[in-house]
Amino acid sequence: MISRVAESCFWLNRYIERADVLSRMLAVNRAFQLDVNLPDTERWRPLVVVAGQEDDFTGLTEEDERDDPELVQDYLSWDPRNPSSLFSSLRAARENARTIRETISLEMWEVLNDLWVWIESKTARRLYEKDRHAFYLHIRNQCCLFHGIAQETMLHEDPFEFMRLGTALERGGQTARLLDIKFHSIGPTAAEQESPAEAAQWLATLRSCSGVEPFLKRGDKPFSGPTVAEFLLFDRSFPRSVLHNLHRARNFLDLVCPPAPTTIGSQSRELLNETLTRFTARDIDGVLEDGLHDTLTWIVGATAEICGVIHDEFFDPTPIVPRKGQQQQSQQQSP
Amino acid sequence: MSADETDSSLFSDYAPLKGTFDECFDADGKVRPETERVVQLLESLGGREFRTRQRLADTTFLKSGITFSVYSDRRGAERIFPFDLIPRIIPGAEWERVRTGLQQRIRALNFFLNDVYSDQRILAEDVVPRDLVLGASGYTPEVSGIRPPGGIYVHIAGIDLIRGPDGEFVVLEDNARTPSGVSYVLENRMMMKKVFPHVFAESRVMGVEEYPIRLRDALAAVGPAPDDEDGTAVLTPGPFNSAYFEHSFLARRMGVPLVEGRDLFVDRDRLYAKTTLGPRRIDVLYRRIDDPFLDPEVFRKDSALGVPGLVRAYAKGNVALANAIGNGVVDDKGIYPYVPDMIRFYLSEEPILGQVPTYVCAREDDLAYVLDHVGELVIKAVNEAGGYGMLIGPQASRRERKDFAERIRSNPRNYIAQPRIELSTCPTWTSRGVGPRRVDLRPYVVTGRDDPWVLPGGLTRVALVEGSYVVNSSQGGGSKDTWVLEETAS
To answer: CB neighbours of A260 closer than 8 A, spacing ≥ 6?
Structure first.
């Protein structure tokens, strides 16, 4: 398929994933504030930090505003200047879809277009003012609807695999960001006894991934920071765990890699395999020993790096046709 | 419910305009024998049922995204091209003359372009004035001496036809660059089958569905690459172009990739697309981008829509461009009056289709006549399309006429003038029942290595505003399905 189209497929789903995760974070954080008494600084700003927008946010606001809960929520939900806001993500998702209308199904386009028209409408703004939970839930449900419709209406061929590849890599990174909120609000995680605030934070993190019941199904583990972190990092089957998404990414990558003699995708695959090996080399105890925050930071960086190599190999290839001699050489190099 | 007394008849109050040919009714208001059957079938539905089906058609178009974009809209909102459910009917025998006339015209235009960009025989023999050709803004000296693969320049043509009061089809203008609108022909037909299955089934209408396949085959036939590395693609300026729907539609229906300039590159004078499986050779490009934007190395340097090196690849014969570069010279309205002479010159045949008498302001006598008769003529800039750059003398104010006369004086080469033709009308659904509205017809002609193939019918555009002569979609026009009836064996 045309490289640009593949890139739009990939980014379409990355933006959908960002909107989905952010709406979950915002909804759960709101509920969490009701349960726990935290200092102002620990309430909302961590969401800005894990979204990677701290510098921009600081630049746009006065110091005494930055812990204003309404202001932070507004920045994360609506601000068009914030490239990660819900508004910006939904706009970018629709724009990517618009350029590949002939690739996605009509039904997928309708979901995205409706969602965009809705978030620009007064209805959405009113719902945000009146019932914020319902507002975030609507976005989350439409994102799920989009995935379901894609699954049921698109050819399960390259464009679809690039979309799913985008979802898997974005989600792996987002789950790491989600886990890191706790570091930025309460502090480092250790294996020792936890405060009630910490316990509540962990429960909130699980809830934002729709992970409470799946976690409980794992049975014997007591509910604690380390067990929740272990679940969200290493569970093989949980759809939002980091490991699950790295595995999925590898599967989708295999599906879009061309057969020999070309070697497109080999660097992406190599990097993804390296990341998986390094990620699974330690268990949760090892992770806590080295520091959870550092591991999470590494995961966010590693998934971004994989996306970068995929970009270079698949989406923005060097505009040169391999000469015959060179092709043979690279054939020999590939295992 | 039994027979509905309040339900109105569709055509009982219909009155053709005086001095104008009507497609369905004669001057006395009697239905023409060739269209009688279809008119009866429509009439049997009744006004109320007809209205319901018109609404059904409108919603279907909007929902399925058959739209054109409006540039100014911030959201990139798309609008539907208004569609009128009453078909325009052309009897088979009449169509046959149009079809052969179009084939003849396209053959002549192709010879002319080959000649203009090589020996210029027709200029040497003074059949077409040299100054006029070399001075045409569509004349492209950069492609002189380049012979396009297969010698074909006009792969896809849209020739605009009109009918005057005598009912004869004549050529109004040639579109040999990137004529658009064929996707509406196909979509309109699909809609008619959906909305009027019964009427359709009983009317023996010639099919249009084979267009994308005909086009794909014609394009593939001129591709210079060997079979194992050939590939066709449709080149679009992108989703913000007003005809993007059509680009995407044709790519899908031909089963070829839709690409933008940045998806392509030229390496060792060959054209490739960047794909996730590596570079893929493209040897035929159905480009929907105008010449000046095709290649920043040769034409406009600021163009980000094109492909650097494309003209080089084209000059080496490694890629066929449909349509070829330089066709603008035959779209020039100042060249148009000479097409009958081209037909005689290259084919030694008499033109089958007539055309509209034209005053070329580049000729001194004509200029004087035009300036004396601004109020009676339709005056057009030679390089404009879409109903822009045009003055309809009889409808213009004194001030507008004066301004236009000034413009003509300062650049006579840029203008032609024609008498205003009373365009034929076709019964059309309006808010006040069925009324006569003016129409034109754009048939599409596809040419590969074989004889030109003419799509039966084409796009009928209709001026929906009462009394209007302008049928362009950008200026309040709509469209109709065009039914070419098969000749009955009897």
So the answer is: A331, A334
| B259 and chain A in contact, CB less than 8 A | yes
In a domain, A328, yes or no: no
- How far is residue B424's CA from residue B19's CA, in Å, rounded to a whole number? 9
CB half-sphere exposure, B274, CA atoms < 13 A: 23
* Beta carbons of A322 and B263 less than 8 Å apart: no
Residues 183-242 of B with CB under 8 A from A: 238-239
pLDDT for A234-259, tens place per residue? 999 999 999 999 999 999 999 998 77
Say whether the ipTM exceeds 0.85: no
Q: Does the beta-carbon distance from A321 to B252 stay under 8 Å?
A: no
pTM: 0.84
Low-confidence ranges of chain B (pLDDT < 70): 1-7, 62-80, 385-387, 474, 488-490
Interface of A with B (CB under 8 A): 1-6, 98-99, 101-102, 106, 109, 117, 120, 158, 162, 256, 258, 262, 264, 314, 316-317, 319-322
Structural domain contains residue A155: yes
pLDDT at B63: 62
Q: Would the CA dihedral through A111, A112, A117, A120 be positive or negative?
A: positive
Whether B270 has its CB under 8 Å from any CB of chain A: the answer is: yes
CB contact under 8 A, A4 and B274: yes
- Among residues A116, A62, A108, A125, the alpha carbon closest in space to that of A91 is found at A116
Point out which residues pair with B463 in neighbouring strands: B477
| Chain B closest-CA separation from residue A74 CA (Å) | 22
Q: Is the peptide bond before B351 cis (omega within 30 degrees of 0)?
A: no
Q: What is the pLDDT of residue B488?
A: 67
From B75, B76, B257, residue closest to A2, measured CB to CB: B257
Domain B358-419 architecture = 2-Layer Sandwich (3.30)
Q: Which is nearest to A61 in space by CA: A50, A48, A42? A: A48
Chain A residues with CB under 8 Å of B258 CB are: 2, 102
Q: Is residue A333 part of a domain?
A: no
Interface probe, candidates B229, B248, B276, chain A, greatest A C-beta count within 10 A: B276
Q: Collapsing DSSP states into helix, strand and coil, what is residue A206?
A: helix
Q: Maximum distance among all alpha carbons in chain A?
A: 68
Q: Which of B249, B252, B276 has the CB atom closest to A3's CB atom? A: B276
Inform me whether the pLDDT recorded for A335 exceeds 60. Answer: no
CB atoms inside a 10 Å sphere around CB B128: 21
Look at A4 and B263 and tell me if their CB atoms are within 8 Å.
yes
Residue A216 falls inside a structural domain: yes
What is the tens place of the pLDDT at every residue in A105-144?
888 988 998 899 899 889 999 999 999 999 999 999 999 9
What residues make up the domain containing A91?
3-318
Domain count, chain A: 1
| Residue A192 or A332, more confident | A192
Cβ-contact B17, B426 below 8 angstroms:
no
Nearest to B263 among A3, A264, A320 (CB): A3
Residue-range domain boundaries for chain B:
358-419
